[in-house]
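Tutorial handout. Part one gives the primary structure; part two gives the three-dimensional structure as C-alpha coordinates.
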Amino acid sequence: MSDTTQHKGPRLNRRQSIQLGAASAAAGLVAARPGRLAHAEDPPTGPSTAPWMMPLTVPVPKQTVASLSPEPSHYPVAGEAGRDPHQTWTGAAPQKLYTIRVKEALHSFHPQLPTQTIWGYDGTFPGPCIVARYNEPCLVRFYNEINPYAVGYGSPEISVHLHNLHCASESDGFAGDYWSSVRYGPGLTRAGQFKDHLFMNHYAGFSTDPAGIGDTREALGTLWFHDHRLDFTEQNVYRGMAGLYLMFDELDSGNEKDPNPLALKLPSGVGQYDIPLVFADFLFDKSGYVYYNPLIDNKGHLGNKVTVNGKIQPYFKVQRRKYRFRLLDASVARFYEFYLMNGTTSQNFTYIANDGNLLPAPLTMNAVRLAPAERADIVIDFSKYPHGTRLYLVNRLLMKDGRGPEGLSSRGEQLLRFDVDTDPMEQDVSQVPARLRDLPPINLNDVVRTRRWEFDKDNAIWTVNKKIFDPEKAAAVVKRNTAEIWELRGNGSWHHPVHIHMEEVRILSRNGVPPPPHEQGRKDVIVLKPDERVKVFIRFRDFTGKYLLHCHNLTHEDHAMMARWDVVA
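Part two.
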Protein backbone atom coordinates (compact mmCIF):
# COMPACT_ATOMS: atom_id res chain seq x y z
CA MET A 1 0.00 0.00 0.00
CA SER A 2 1.39 3.34 -0.95
CA ASP A 3 1.25 5.69 2.01
CA THR A 4 3.07 8.79 3.18
CA THR A 5 4.13 8.85 6.82
CA GLN A 6 7.15 9.70 8.93
CA HIS A 7 7.74 6.05 9.81
CA LYS A 8 10.22 4.00 7.82
CA GLY A 9 10.51 0.25 7.47
CA PRO A 10 10.07 -2.72 5.13
CA ARG A 11 7.25 -2.27 2.61
CA LEU A 12 4.84 -5.04 1.67
CA ASN A 13 3.33 -5.31 -1.77
CA ARG A 14 -0.43 -4.77 -1.93
CA ARG A 15 -1.33 -8.47 -2.15
CA GLN A 16 0.72 -9.19 0.99
CA SER A 17 -0.88 -6.23 2.73
CA ILE A 18 -4.37 -7.52 2.00
CA GLN A 19 -3.54 -11.04 3.14
CA LEU A 20 -2.03 -9.76 6.39
CA GLY A 21 -4.49 -6.91 6.94
CA ALA A 22 -7.05 -9.02 8.77
CA ALA A 23 -4.48 -10.21 11.27
CA SER A 24 -3.21 -6.71 12.00
CA ALA A 25 -6.75 -5.38 12.41
CA ALA A 26 -7.58 -8.15 14.84
CA ALA A 27 -4.46 -7.33 16.86
CA GLY A 28 -5.79 -3.79 17.22
CA LEU A 29 -9.03 -5.12 18.64
CA VAL A 30 -7.22 -6.42 21.70
CA ALA A 31 -6.13 -2.92 22.64
CA ALA A 32 -9.50 -1.40 21.78
CA ARG A 33 -11.59 -3.87 23.73
CA PRO A 34 -9.79 -5.19 26.82
CA GLY A 35 -11.24 -8.52 27.91
CA ARG A 36 -13.05 -9.12 24.62
CA LEU A 37 -10.41 -10.59 22.35
CA ALA A 38 -11.20 -11.25 18.71
CA HIS A 39 -10.47 -14.88 17.89
CA ALA A 40 -11.18 -16.72 14.66
CA GLU A 41 -14.52 -18.08 15.76
CA ASP A 42 -18.18 -18.10 14.87
CA PRO A 43 -19.98 -14.77 15.32
CA PRO A 44 -21.36 -14.18 18.82
CA THR A 45 -25.01 -14.33 19.76
CA GLY A 46 -26.13 -10.92 20.91
CA PRO A 47 -28.37 -10.21 23.90
CA SER A 48 -32.12 -9.98 23.50
CA THR A 49 -33.64 -6.51 23.36
CA ALA A 50 -37.25 -5.48 23.81
CA PRO A 51 -38.83 -3.88 20.73
CA TRP A 52 -40.46 -0.49 20.45
CA MET A 53 -38.80 1.10 23.47
CA MET A 54 -37.79 4.37 21.79
CA PRO A 55 -39.01 6.63 19.00
CA LEU A 56 -37.35 6.82 15.62
CA THR A 57 -34.57 9.38 15.45
CA VAL A 58 -35.58 11.68 12.60
CA PRO A 59 -32.78 13.53 10.75
CA VAL A 60 -33.19 17.30 10.50
CA PRO A 61 -31.43 19.62 8.04
CA LYS A 62 -27.88 20.65 8.87
CA GLN A 63 -27.42 24.41 9.35
CA THR A 64 -24.91 26.47 7.40
CA VAL A 65 -22.15 28.58 8.95
CA ALA A 66 -21.60 32.26 8.15
CA SER A 67 -17.90 31.92 7.30
CA LEU A 68 -14.86 29.69 7.48
CA SER A 69 -11.39 30.51 8.71
CA PRO A 70 -9.13 30.29 6.89
CA GLU A 71 -11.29 31.28 3.97
CA PRO A 72 -11.63 28.53 1.31
CA SER A 73 -9.65 28.88 -1.87
CA HIS A 74 -9.02 27.35 -5.28
CA TYR A 75 -5.87 25.77 -3.81
CA PRO A 76 -5.43 24.11 -0.38
CA VAL A 77 -5.23 26.66 2.42
CA ALA A 78 -3.19 26.60 5.62
CA GLY A 79 -4.04 23.53 7.69
CA GLU A 80 -5.84 21.78 4.84
CA ALA A 81 -4.89 18.35 3.48
CA GLY A 82 -3.01 18.62 0.20
CA ARG A 83 -5.74 18.07 -2.38
CA ASP A 84 -5.79 18.97 -6.07
CA PRO A 85 -7.16 22.44 -6.97
CA HIS A 86 -10.93 22.74 -7.26
CA GLN A 87 -11.82 22.27 -10.92
CA THR A 88 -14.88 24.51 -10.86
CA TRP A 89 -13.66 27.34 -8.64
CA THR A 90 -15.43 30.56 -9.62
CA GLY A 91 -13.17 32.98 -7.78
CA ALA A 92 -14.96 32.95 -4.43
CA ALA A 93 -16.36 30.41 -2.00
CA PRO A 94 -20.04 29.46 -2.33
CA GLN A 95 -22.52 31.27 -0.14
CA LYS A 96 -23.56 27.99 1.49
CA LEU A 97 -20.84 26.79 3.85
CA TYR A 98 -20.90 23.82 6.21
CA THR A 99 -18.57 22.31 8.77
CA ILE A 100 -18.69 18.64 9.71
CA ARG A 101 -16.44 17.27 12.42
CA VAL A 102 -15.55 13.60 12.24
CA LYS A 103 -15.02 12.53 15.81
CA GLU A 104 -15.39 9.91 18.49
CA ALA A 105 -18.58 10.05 20.53
CA LEU A 106 -20.89 7.93 22.64
CA HIS A 107 -24.00 6.39 21.10
CA SER A 108 -26.95 4.38 22.41
CA PHE A 109 -28.37 1.78 20.04
CA HIS A 110 -30.99 0.62 22.57
CA PRO A 111 -31.87 1.43 26.21
CA GLN A 112 -31.05 -2.16 27.26
CA LEU A 113 -27.57 -2.09 25.73
CA PRO A 114 -24.53 -0.21 27.04
CA THR A 115 -23.68 3.16 25.58
CA GLN A 116 -20.63 2.74 23.37
CA THR A 117 -18.10 4.57 21.27
CA ILE A 118 -18.64 5.37 17.60
CA TRP A 119 -16.81 7.44 15.02
CA GLY A 120 -19.38 9.70 13.45
CA TYR A 121 -19.90 12.84 11.39
CA ASP A 122 -20.52 15.49 14.05
CA GLY A 123 -20.29 12.56 16.47
CA THR A 124 -23.69 11.11 15.53
CA PHE A 125 -24.97 8.03 13.74
CA PRO A 126 -26.40 8.55 11.27
CA GLY A 127 -24.52 11.77 10.68
CA PRO A 128 -26.00 15.13 9.70
CA CYS A 129 -28.43 15.66 6.84
CA ILE A 130 -27.44 18.33 4.33
CA VAL A 131 -30.32 19.69 2.25
CA ALA A 132 -29.10 21.16 -1.05
CA ARG A 133 -30.57 22.51 -4.26
CA TYR A 134 -29.41 22.16 -7.82
CA ASN A 135 -27.32 25.06 -9.12
CA GLU A 136 -26.77 26.34 -5.56
CA PRO A 137 -23.14 25.37 -4.81
CA CYS A 138 -22.00 24.55 -1.32
CA LEU A 139 -18.67 23.84 0.35
CA VAL A 140 -18.29 21.39 3.22
CA ARG A 141 -15.22 21.58 5.42
CA PHE A 142 -14.62 18.18 6.97
CA TYR A 143 -12.48 18.28 10.13
CA ASN A 144 -10.83 15.03 11.19
CA GLU A 145 -10.85 15.08 14.99
CA ILE A 146 -10.25 11.36 15.50
CA ASN A 147 -7.11 10.62 17.50
CA PRO A 148 -4.56 10.02 14.71
CA TYR A 149 -2.98 7.28 16.82
CA ALA A 150 -6.26 5.55 17.70
CA VAL A 151 -6.12 1.77 18.10
CA GLY A 152 -8.75 -0.87 17.48
CA TYR A 153 -10.54 -1.55 14.25
CA GLY A 154 -10.96 1.24 11.74
CA SER A 155 -8.48 3.81 10.54
CA PRO A 156 -8.13 7.36 11.91
CA GLU A 157 -7.42 8.56 8.38
CA ILE A 158 -10.53 9.38 6.36
CA SER A 159 -11.66 10.09 2.81
CA VAL A 160 -15.27 11.28 2.50
CA HIS A 161 -17.26 10.13 -0.54
CA LEU A 162 -20.59 11.77 -1.45
CA HIS A 163 -22.51 8.94 -3.10
CA ASN A 164 -23.30 9.67 -5.94
CA LEU A 165 -23.02 13.38 -6.63
CA HIS A 166 -21.84 14.44 -10.08
CA CYS A 167 -18.74 16.23 -8.81
CA ALA A 168 -15.06 16.86 -9.45
CA SER A 169 -12.63 14.11 -8.51
CA GLU A 170 -10.81 16.15 -5.82
CA SER A 171 -14.10 16.27 -3.86
CA ASP A 172 -15.29 12.75 -4.70
CA GLY A 173 -13.54 10.90 -1.87
CA PHE A 174 -11.08 8.77 -3.83
CA ALA A 175 -9.85 5.82 -1.74
CA GLY A 176 -6.23 6.93 -1.92
CA ASP A 177 -7.02 10.52 -0.86
CA TYR A 178 -7.16 9.69 2.85
CA TRP A 179 -5.74 11.98 5.49
CA SER A 180 -5.37 12.85 9.13
CA SER A 181 -3.29 15.46 10.92
CA VAL A 182 -0.17 13.28 10.67
CA ARG A 183 -0.68 10.95 7.72
CA TYR A 184 -1.91 11.06 4.15
CA GLY A 185 -2.46 8.78 1.19
CA PRO A 186 -0.85 8.64 -2.26
CA GLY A 187 -3.46 10.92 -3.83
CA LEU A 188 -2.61 13.90 -1.61
CA THR A 189 0.50 16.01 -1.01
CA ARG A 190 0.29 16.60 2.74
CA ALA A 191 -1.61 15.85 5.93
CA GLY A 192 -4.08 18.32 7.39
CA GLN A 193 -6.58 19.22 10.07
CA PHE A 194 -9.41 19.48 7.54
CA LYS A 195 -10.26 19.14 3.87
CA ASP A 196 -12.68 21.25 1.80
CA HIS A 197 -15.13 19.52 -0.53
CA LEU A 198 -16.70 21.73 -3.17
CA PHE A 199 -20.08 20.55 -4.40
CA MET A 200 -21.30 22.68 -7.30
CA ASN A 201 -24.61 20.77 -7.42
CA HIS A 202 -24.76 21.02 -11.21
CA TYR A 203 -26.82 18.77 -13.42
CA ALA A 204 -24.65 16.47 -15.51
CA GLY A 205 -23.78 17.95 -18.88
CA PHE A 206 -23.46 21.53 -17.68
CA SER A 207 -20.08 22.09 -19.36
CA THR A 208 -21.50 21.51 -22.85
CA ASP A 209 -24.83 23.25 -22.24
CA PRO A 210 -24.83 26.77 -23.72
CA ALA A 211 -26.86 27.89 -20.70
CA GLY A 212 -24.39 26.23 -18.31
CA ILE A 213 -27.17 24.39 -16.50
CA GLY A 214 -26.99 20.80 -17.72
CA ASP A 215 -29.75 18.27 -18.26
CA THR A 216 -32.48 18.58 -15.63
CA ARG A 217 -33.43 14.96 -16.34
CA GLU A 218 -30.12 14.03 -14.67
CA ALA A 219 -31.17 15.10 -11.17
CA LEU A 220 -30.73 12.95 -8.08
CA GLY A 221 -32.58 13.37 -4.82
CA THR A 222 -31.40 10.91 -2.17
CA LEU A 223 -27.63 10.78 -1.69
CA TRP A 224 -25.42 9.88 1.25
CA PHE A 225 -21.84 10.37 2.31
CA HIS A 226 -19.58 7.82 3.94
CA ASP A 227 -15.95 7.07 4.47
CA HIS A 228 -13.91 5.59 1.62
CA ARG A 229 -10.47 5.15 3.17
CA LEU A 230 -8.32 2.65 1.24
CA ASP A 231 -8.51 -0.82 2.87
CA PHE A 232 -10.63 0.48 5.78
CA THR A 233 -13.92 1.57 4.22
CA GLU A 234 -15.84 -1.30 5.82
CA GLN A 235 -14.40 -0.72 9.27
CA ASN A 236 -14.86 3.06 9.24
CA VAL A 237 -18.43 2.83 7.95
CA TYR A 238 -19.10 0.12 10.54
CA ARG A 239 -17.83 2.49 13.22
CA GLY A 240 -20.52 4.99 12.20
CA MET A 241 -19.33 7.16 9.31
CA ALA A 242 -22.51 7.68 7.30
CA GLY A 243 -24.55 10.83 6.67
CA LEU A 244 -27.26 12.15 4.33
CA TYR A 245 -27.33 14.64 1.47
CA LEU A 246 -30.72 15.42 -0.08
CA MET A 247 -31.15 17.46 -3.26
CA PHE A 248 -34.10 19.39 -4.64
CA ASP A 249 -34.87 21.39 -7.77
CA GLU A 250 -37.81 23.04 -9.50
CA LEU A 251 -39.52 19.70 -10.20
CA ASP A 252 -38.82 17.88 -6.92
CA SER A 253 -38.96 21.10 -4.96
CA GLY A 254 -39.38 19.83 -1.42
CA ASN A 255 -42.55 21.89 -1.02
CA GLU A 256 -45.92 20.20 -1.30
CA LYS A 257 -47.56 23.66 -1.36
CA ASP A 258 -45.33 24.96 -4.15
CA PRO A 259 -47.37 27.28 -6.43
CA ASN A 260 -45.06 26.47 -9.35
CA PRO A 261 -47.16 24.39 -11.80
CA LEU A 262 -44.04 22.32 -12.64
CA ALA A 263 -43.55 21.15 -9.05
CA LEU A 264 -44.50 17.55 -8.26
CA LYS A 265 -45.74 18.42 -4.76
CA LEU A 266 -44.54 15.15 -3.24
CA PRO A 267 -44.88 14.79 0.55
CA SER A 268 -42.40 17.30 1.92
CA GLY A 269 -40.62 18.80 4.87
CA VAL A 270 -37.39 16.96 5.69
CA GLY A 271 -37.87 15.52 9.16
CA GLN A 272 -41.63 16.09 9.01
CA TYR A 273 -43.26 14.27 6.10
CA ASP A 274 -40.08 13.51 4.15
CA ILE A 275 -38.21 10.99 6.29
CA PRO A 276 -34.85 9.30 5.57
CA LEU A 277 -34.58 5.75 6.90
CA VAL A 278 -31.00 4.48 7.23
CA PHE A 279 -30.69 0.71 7.73
CA ALA A 280 -27.47 -0.76 9.11
CA ASP A 281 -26.83 -4.05 10.87
CA PHE A 282 -24.29 -4.56 13.65
CA LEU A 283 -22.87 -7.61 15.38
CA PHE A 284 -23.32 -7.38 19.15
CA ASP A 285 -21.55 -9.67 21.61
CA LYS A 286 -23.30 -11.18 24.63
CA SER A 287 -22.38 -8.11 26.70
CA GLY A 288 -24.17 -5.86 24.24
CA TYR A 289 -21.13 -4.23 22.66
CA VAL A 290 -20.60 -3.91 18.92
CA TYR A 291 -18.19 -6.61 17.85
CA TYR A 292 -15.94 -6.70 14.81
CA ASN A 293 -13.77 -9.65 13.86
CA PRO A 294 -11.97 -9.51 10.51
CA LEU A 295 -10.86 -13.12 10.96
CA ILE A 296 -14.35 -14.61 10.65
CA ASP A 297 -14.23 -14.52 6.85
CA ASN A 298 -13.89 -12.12 3.95
CA LYS A 299 -17.29 -12.88 2.44
CA GLY A 300 -19.10 -9.96 4.02
CA HIS A 301 -19.60 -8.80 7.59
CA LEU A 302 -23.16 -9.43 8.83
CA GLY A 303 -24.70 -8.27 12.08
CA ASN A 304 -27.18 -9.90 14.42
CA LYS A 305 -29.28 -6.75 14.96
CA VAL A 306 -30.53 -4.18 12.47
CA THR A 307 -30.72 -0.50 13.32
CA VAL A 308 -33.02 2.11 11.76
CA ASN A 309 -31.53 5.59 12.01
CA GLY A 310 -29.16 4.25 14.63
CA LYS A 311 -31.77 2.56 16.86
CA ILE A 312 -32.90 -1.05 17.24
CA GLN A 313 -36.62 -1.52 16.52
CA PRO A 314 -37.86 2.03 17.07
CA TYR A 315 -41.43 3.23 16.56
CA PHE A 316 -42.62 6.24 14.56
CA LYS A 317 -45.90 8.04 15.17
CA VAL A 318 -47.51 9.13 11.90
CA GLN A 319 -50.50 11.23 10.94
CA ARG A 320 -53.24 9.97 8.67
CA ARG A 321 -51.68 11.40 5.50
CA LYS A 322 -48.97 10.68 2.91
CA TYR A 323 -45.30 10.41 3.84
CA ARG A 324 -42.21 10.11 1.66
CA PHE A 325 -39.62 7.67 3.02
CA ARG A 326 -36.09 7.54 1.66
CA LEU A 327 -34.76 4.04 2.33
CA LEU A 328 -30.98 3.62 2.38
CA ASP A 329 -29.09 0.37 2.86
CA ALA A 330 -26.02 1.61 4.76
CA SER A 331 -24.98 -1.89 5.85
CA VAL A 332 -21.53 -3.06 4.94
CA ALA A 333 -22.78 -6.31 3.36
CA ARG A 334 -26.43 -7.10 4.16
CA PHE A 335 -29.21 -7.08 1.57
CA TYR A 336 -32.82 -6.42 2.61
CA GLU A 337 -36.27 -7.05 1.21
CA PHE A 338 -38.79 -4.82 2.92
CA TYR A 339 -42.53 -5.39 3.28
CA LEU A 340 -45.11 -3.12 4.90
CA MET A 341 -47.24 -5.41 7.05
CA ASN A 342 -50.64 -4.90 8.64
CA GLY A 343 -51.00 -8.01 10.75
CA THR A 344 -50.18 -10.86 8.36
CA THR A 345 -51.12 -8.94 5.21
CA SER A 346 -48.59 -7.06 3.12
CA GLN A 347 -49.63 -3.56 2.08
CA ASN A 348 -49.03 -1.74 -1.17
CA PHE A 349 -46.98 1.43 -1.33
CA THR A 350 -45.85 3.73 -4.13
CA TYR A 351 -42.29 3.38 -5.41
CA ILE A 352 -41.04 6.67 -6.87
CA ALA A 353 -37.22 6.63 -7.02
CA ASN A 354 -34.35 4.18 -7.40
CA ASP A 355 -30.88 5.20 -6.16
CA GLY A 356 -32.16 8.71 -5.69
CA ASN A 357 -33.42 8.99 -9.28
CA LEU A 358 -37.11 9.68 -9.74
CA LEU A 359 -38.73 7.19 -12.12
CA PRO A 360 -40.70 8.38 -15.17
CA ALA A 361 -43.87 7.13 -13.47
CA PRO A 362 -44.64 5.76 -10.00
CA LEU A 363 -44.98 2.01 -9.44
CA THR A 364 -47.36 0.26 -7.07
CA MET A 365 -45.41 -2.40 -5.15
CA ASN A 366 -45.64 -4.43 -1.97
CA ALA A 367 -41.90 -5.13 -1.54
CA VAL A 368 -38.59 -3.46 -2.23
CA ARG A 369 -35.18 -5.14 -2.24
CA LEU A 370 -32.03 -3.18 -1.46
CA ALA A 371 -28.36 -4.10 -1.71
CA PRO A 372 -25.66 -2.20 0.17
CA ALA A 373 -25.67 1.49 -0.89
CA GLU A 374 -28.91 1.20 -2.88
CA ARG A 375 -31.69 3.66 -2.13
CA ALA A 376 -35.43 3.58 -2.74
CA ASP A 377 -37.92 6.39 -2.24
CA ILE A 378 -41.43 5.23 -1.43
CA VAL A 379 -44.68 6.98 -0.48
CA ILE A 380 -47.02 5.46 2.10
CA ASP A 381 -50.54 6.84 2.47
CA PHE A 382 -51.57 6.36 6.10
CA SER A 383 -54.96 7.98 5.53
CA LYS A 384 -56.21 4.50 4.57
CA TYR A 385 -55.78 3.25 8.13
CA PRO A 386 -57.91 4.04 11.21
CA HIS A 387 -56.48 5.58 14.37
CA GLY A 388 -54.57 3.10 16.47
CA THR A 389 -53.41 0.97 13.53
CA ARG A 390 -49.90 -0.40 13.87
CA LEU A 391 -47.99 -1.21 10.71
CA TYR A 392 -44.58 -2.82 10.56
CA LEU A 393 -41.70 -2.54 8.14
CA VAL A 394 -40.41 -6.10 7.93
CA ASN A 395 -37.27 -7.55 6.37
CA ARG A 396 -38.02 -11.01 5.00
CA LEU A 397 -34.78 -11.64 3.14
CA LEU A 398 -32.66 -14.53 4.38
CA MET A 399 -28.88 -14.11 4.31
CA LYS A 400 -26.44 -16.21 6.32
CA ASP A 401 -23.18 -14.83 4.92
CA GLY A 402 -21.80 -12.31 2.47
CA ARG A 403 -22.43 -14.57 -0.50
CA GLY A 404 -25.82 -12.91 -0.94
CA PRO A 405 -29.58 -13.43 -0.47
CA GLU A 406 -30.86 -16.98 -0.10
CA GLY A 407 -34.62 -16.62 -0.25
CA LEU A 408 -37.50 -15.27 1.79
CA SER A 409 -38.61 -15.96 5.33
CA SER A 410 -42.31 -16.59 5.83
CA ARG A 411 -42.49 -14.05 8.67
CA GLY A 412 -39.32 -11.96 8.62
CA GLU A 413 -38.03 -9.51 11.20
CA GLN A 414 -39.92 -6.41 12.27
CA LEU A 415 -37.55 -3.43 12.07
CA LEU A 416 -39.79 -0.36 12.42
CA ARG A 417 -43.30 0.17 13.75
CA PHE A 418 -45.57 2.86 12.35
CA ASP A 419 -48.22 4.03 14.83
CA VAL A 420 -51.14 5.73 13.07
CA ASP A 421 -51.66 8.33 15.73
CA THR A 422 -53.58 11.46 14.72
CA ASP A 423 -55.29 13.24 11.87
CA PRO A 424 -53.18 15.88 10.13
CA MET A 425 -53.49 19.38 11.55
CA GLU A 426 -54.28 20.65 8.06
CA GLN A 427 -55.42 19.08 4.81
CA ASP A 428 -52.87 16.90 3.10
CA VAL A 429 -52.23 18.63 -0.23
CA SER A 430 -49.28 16.43 -1.21
CA GLN A 431 -49.63 14.19 -4.23
CA VAL A 432 -47.92 11.55 -6.32
CA PRO A 433 -48.45 12.58 -9.95
CA ALA A 434 -48.84 10.06 -12.75
CA ARG A 435 -45.62 11.43 -14.31
CA LEU A 436 -42.49 12.10 -12.29
CA ARG A 437 -39.21 12.85 -14.09
CA ASP A 438 -38.53 12.02 -17.73
CA LEU A 439 -35.41 10.03 -18.60
CA PRO A 440 -32.61 11.39 -20.76
CA PRO A 441 -32.27 9.53 -24.07
CA ILE A 442 -29.81 6.71 -24.68
CA ASN A 443 -27.99 7.44 -27.91
CA LEU A 444 -25.94 4.38 -28.80
CA ASN A 445 -24.40 6.32 -31.68
CA ASP A 446 -22.41 8.20 -29.06
CA VAL A 447 -20.73 5.02 -27.82
CA VAL A 448 -17.01 5.00 -28.60
CA ARG A 449 -16.07 1.75 -26.86
CA THR A 450 -17.32 -1.30 -24.98
CA ARG A 451 -15.41 -2.42 -21.87
CA ARG A 452 -15.72 -5.54 -19.77
CA TRP A 453 -15.34 -5.57 -15.99
CA GLU A 454 -15.20 -9.00 -14.32
CA PHE A 455 -15.79 -9.34 -10.59
CA ASP A 456 -14.24 -12.53 -9.27
CA LYS A 457 -12.41 -14.22 -6.41
CA ASP A 458 -8.78 -15.05 -7.06
CA ASN A 459 -6.87 -17.07 -4.44
CA ALA A 460 -9.11 -15.78 -1.61
CA ILE A 461 -8.73 -12.18 -2.82
CA TRP A 462 -11.52 -10.24 -4.46
CA THR A 463 -10.49 -8.86 -7.86
CA VAL A 464 -11.69 -6.81 -10.81
CA ASN A 465 -10.44 -8.16 -14.15
CA LYS A 466 -8.14 -10.51 -12.20
CA LYS A 467 -6.33 -7.58 -10.62
CA ILE A 468 -6.28 -6.10 -7.14
CA PHE A 469 -6.85 -2.40 -6.65
CA ASP A 470 -3.91 -0.08 -7.19
CA PRO A 471 -4.71 3.52 -6.18
CA GLU A 472 -1.86 4.84 -8.31
CA LYS A 473 -2.72 3.07 -11.55
CA ALA A 474 -5.78 3.54 -13.75
CA ALA A 475 -7.43 0.36 -15.02
CA ALA A 476 -9.20 2.43 -17.71
CA VAL A 477 -8.78 5.88 -19.22
CA VAL A 478 -11.85 7.47 -20.80
CA LYS A 479 -12.31 10.65 -22.77
CA ARG A 480 -14.39 13.43 -21.23
CA ASN A 481 -17.83 13.97 -22.79
CA THR A 482 -17.86 10.58 -24.49
CA ALA A 483 -20.03 7.51 -23.86
CA GLU A 484 -19.26 3.82 -23.51
CA ILE A 485 -21.01 0.52 -22.84
CA TRP A 486 -19.67 -1.29 -19.81
CA GLU A 487 -20.37 -4.99 -19.42
CA LEU A 488 -20.27 -6.01 -15.77
CA ARG A 489 -19.70 -9.71 -15.14
CA GLY A 490 -20.10 -11.50 -11.84
CA ASN A 491 -18.21 -14.80 -11.86
CA GLY A 492 -19.05 -17.53 -9.37
CA SER A 493 -21.85 -17.90 -6.84
CA TRP A 494 -21.67 -14.41 -5.34
CA HIS A 495 -23.77 -11.26 -5.35
CA HIS A 496 -21.82 -8.05 -6.00
CA PRO A 497 -23.52 -4.63 -5.69
CA VAL A 498 -21.30 -2.68 -8.09
CA HIS A 499 -21.03 1.07 -7.58
CA ILE A 500 -19.75 3.46 -10.24
CA HIS A 501 -18.69 6.88 -8.99
CA MET A 502 -19.65 10.28 -10.44
CA GLU A 503 -22.06 9.18 -13.19
CA GLU A 504 -25.44 7.47 -13.18
CA VAL A 505 -25.83 4.63 -15.68
CA ARG A 506 -28.70 3.05 -17.58
CA ILE A 507 -29.07 -0.71 -17.54
CA LEU A 508 -29.45 -2.02 -21.08
CA SER A 509 -29.83 -5.71 -20.26
CA ARG A 510 -29.40 -8.45 -17.68
CA ASN A 511 -28.20 -11.65 -19.33
CA GLY A 512 -29.60 -10.26 -22.58
CA VAL A 513 -33.03 -9.43 -21.11
CA PRO A 514 -34.32 -5.87 -20.45
CA PRO A 515 -34.28 -4.87 -16.76
CA PRO A 516 -37.45 -4.87 -14.62
CA PRO A 517 -39.47 -1.62 -14.48
CA HIS A 518 -37.94 -0.30 -11.26
CA GLU A 519 -34.44 -0.63 -12.78
CA GLN A 520 -35.22 1.06 -16.08
CA GLY A 521 -34.29 4.48 -14.72
CA ARG A 522 -30.88 5.85 -13.81
CA LYS A 523 -28.77 3.96 -11.26
CA ASP A 524 -25.41 4.03 -9.53
CA VAL A 525 -25.49 0.61 -7.83
CA ILE A 526 -25.90 -2.38 -10.13
CA VAL A 527 -26.40 -5.73 -8.41
CA LEU A 528 -24.60 -8.58 -10.13
CA LYS A 529 -26.21 -11.90 -9.28
CA PRO A 530 -24.19 -15.12 -9.53
CA ASP A 531 -22.74 -15.55 -13.05
CA GLU A 532 -24.76 -12.60 -14.31
CA ARG A 533 -23.86 -10.27 -17.19
CA VAL A 534 -25.21 -6.72 -17.07
CA LYS A 535 -24.66 -4.16 -19.81
CA VAL A 536 -24.90 -0.48 -18.92
CA PHE A 537 -24.71 2.77 -20.86
CA ILE A 538 -22.49 5.39 -19.24
CA ARG A 539 -21.31 8.90 -20.08
CA PHE A 540 -18.29 10.77 -18.70
CA ARG A 541 -19.22 14.41 -18.51
CA ASP A 542 -17.81 17.69 -17.33
CA PHE A 543 -14.95 16.67 -15.02
CA THR A 544 -11.53 15.09 -15.34
CA GLY A 545 -9.58 13.11 -12.78
CA LYS A 546 -9.62 9.80 -10.96
CA TYR A 547 -12.78 7.88 -10.04
CA LEU A 548 -13.72 4.44 -8.74
CA LEU A 549 -15.64 1.30 -9.67
CA HIS A 550 -16.06 -1.24 -6.89
CA CYS A 551 -18.20 -3.77 -5.11
CA HIS A 552 -20.23 -2.10 -2.34
CA ASN A 553 -20.09 -5.20 -0.22
CA LEU A 554 -17.44 -3.31 1.71
CA THR A 555 -15.64 -6.47 2.80
CA HIS A 556 -15.09 -7.24 -0.87
CA GLU A 557 -14.06 -3.65 -1.60
CA ASP A 558 -11.45 -3.60 1.16
CA HIS A 559 -10.10 -6.92 -0.07
CA ALA A 560 -9.26 -5.17 -3.35
CA MET A 561 -12.43 -5.58 -5.47
CA MET A 562 -12.07 -2.06 -6.80
CA ALA A 563 -10.66 -0.36 -9.90
CA ARG A 564 -9.57 3.16 -10.69
CA TRP A 565 -10.72 4.81 -13.91
CA ASP A 566 -9.55 8.20 -15.10
CA VAL A 567 -11.30 10.84 -17.17
CA VAL A 568 -9.00 12.90 -19.40
CA ALA A 569 -9.68 15.96 -21.53
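Part three, for discussion. The radius of gyration is 22 Å. DSSP finds three helices and 32 strands in the chain.
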